[in-house]
Design brief:
globular; 5-stranded mixed sheet; 31 strands; Neuraminidase; 4-stranded antiparallel sheet; disordered N terminus; single chain; mainly beta
């Protein structure tokens, strides 16, 4: 090989390495805590994760808070409650549900605040951001129908988001004064009031729902396809990967989306997925789990640092909470379904 050819090959290798170095390796961490038969992680923010753990006999769940390891688990279950679970976390606060009431915590079981509004017999809090919480509830005041709800830290602060003309609605995500969910089978976007509702249901779809919002974008699903919006029905992007039969997106942050999908390449089993705005960008996160131990997985949320939470189902049929942690700066190869991730895992 002559000198010019060697220089050309070297430049190509350096450019290829530089491009690959921008990719991220994910390490799967099993968060399943001691003392529980099953667990799942539903929300993540600032190095902390929330979810729930339960025992199959009796099947009473406890809201849980982690800081990146199974051993760090904090039981948020309030005294006197039969069951509880946490769904989301932001800036040291957590939201969820217990004994049929929407709940707000600040890191301990004792800090719990009951968000269930007057006139409601049932409520859940599903999302939190910027001092606001969203969810849904029903009672005599709603005629027994579910209504999307918005709180600002107290039960008395509740705002009923159910749009005029809608029978029922649910809110699941909140960010920057905007809320997302669905009503009467249509994905919806709100700006703090029932009157501000925007119908995100794309033309041609029979139904849709939105699960999360961040940075002016929303994620969810419609007709069994994962969907991404930018504030209008016309802006919709279909994230459904080629060859899959079903997919849904549950979380979004920093231009990345997470959820699950199944198809021929997954053995028709649900696999946790990561996208970067297009169907072609999908990465199968299930590859990082021990192949001998887990047969299904789902990703529910992602934070600004790229940390992802979800759960995986074992061969024995038990659910275990999972955290996928990004390790930037590692050179990778590119392959089918996005980045070929290095398999590394920790179990505690």
């Amino acid at each position: 090989m002559d000198k010019l050819a060697r220089i050309s090959v070297l430049v190509f290798v350096l450019l290829t390495a530089a491009t690959a170095a921008q990719a991220v390796v994910y390490e799967a961490v099993i968060l399943h805590p001691s003392g529980f038969d099953e667990s799942e992680a539903r929300g993540v923010s600032g190095g902390q994760q929330v979810g729930g753990g339960w025992n199959t006999d009796p099947r009473d769940s406890h809201a849980l808070l982690w800081s990146g390891t199974a051993e760090s688990c904090v039981d948020l279950h309030p005294s006197g409650f039969d069951y509880s679970v946490a769904y989301d976390i932001w800036d040291g606060q957590q939201v969820g549900w217990g004994n049929g009431h929407a709940l707000l915590w600040s890191g301990t079981a004792e800090s719990v605040v009951d968000l269930n509004p007057s006139g409601f017999t049932y409520s859940e809090a599903r999302g939190i951001s910027g001092g606001q919480q969203v969810g849904y509830g029903h009672g005599s005041i709603t005629g027994g129908e579910y209504h999307a709800l918005l709180w600002s830290g107290t039960a008395e602060s509740v705002v009923d988001l159910n749009p005029s003309g809608f029978t029922s609605s649910l809110a699941r995500g909140v960010w920057g004064g905007q809320q997302v969910g669905d009503g009467d089978g249509h994905a919806l976007l709100w700006y703090g009031t029932a009157e501000s509702a925007v119908d995100l249901n794309p033309t041609g779809l029979t139904s849709s729902r939105a699960h999360d919002i961040c940075g002016g974008q929303q994620v969810g699903e419609g007709n069994y396809h994962a969907l991404l919006w930018s504030g209008t029905a016309e802006s919709v992007i279909d994230l459904h990967p080629d060859g899959f039969t079903r997919s849904s997106a549950f979380g979004i942050c920093g231009g990345q989306q997470v959820g699950y999908g199944r198809g021929g390449s997954t053995g028709n089993k649900d696999h946790a997925l990561l996208w970067e705005g297009t169907a072609e960008s999908f990465v199968d996160l299930h590859r990082l789990l021990p192949p001998e131990g887990y047969i299904y997985s789902w990703a529910y949320d992602i934070d600004s640092a790229g940390r992802i939470v979800g759960c995986a189902k074992t061969n024995a049929g038990d659910y275990h909470a999972v955290l996928w942690v990004p390790e930037p700066g590692t050179v990778l190869l590119l392959g089918l379904g996005g980045v070929v991730l290095l398999r590394k895992r920790r179990e505690f």
